[in-house]
Known about the structure:
Number of domains: 1
Amino acid sequence: MAVAALLFWLCTAAIGAYLLVTAVHAGNVEREPEEPVPVSAEAIARAVAAASRRPAKGRGAPPEAGPKLSRNDRDIFAPASLRQARSEPLPGLKDLAEFTHPALAMIGIGFWLGYVVSRDRLFAVIGLGILLGAICAGVTLFTVNTRAARRAAADADSAPAAPGTAPLTASPLVLILHGVGATLTLLFAVLIAVRA
């Protein structure tokens, strides 16, 4: 049964490697250079006026009441990619999950292989814990990618997509196979860790 779990894990890793390669290939597509956004003189004047409304220290005079500008509105010269990165709830989460999911999976395979060879229960428990971490990172990666794809689809009408926001390119069948493989691997690993 431990060998079957290892085979399921290796097949799931192979499908995951296919997903990773296709995502990298889709992300390397040459993008058109971003056109400079024309900024009107009125927008520049509003930004300068908003910056000058800050009270100087020691004067105590309250600033004029006016509309509160968001960070993206204040920085009118920021490129679209920077504005999108600032609007994300947790910037860098996708990159972190994109690294940790396959890294934890490969480390877990190593520990599970150690269990298959030595039949030491400690290797099985460590491999199971790492598998749970890899699954959590994978679910996070899927959620972040889905949100980015929805946001890119919603913004497609208003502005061109920023670099690094390519919609999901993976086939739903491949994603389902990867999820089913992870589920079966987890099921076998839990049964072995509980029984062993």
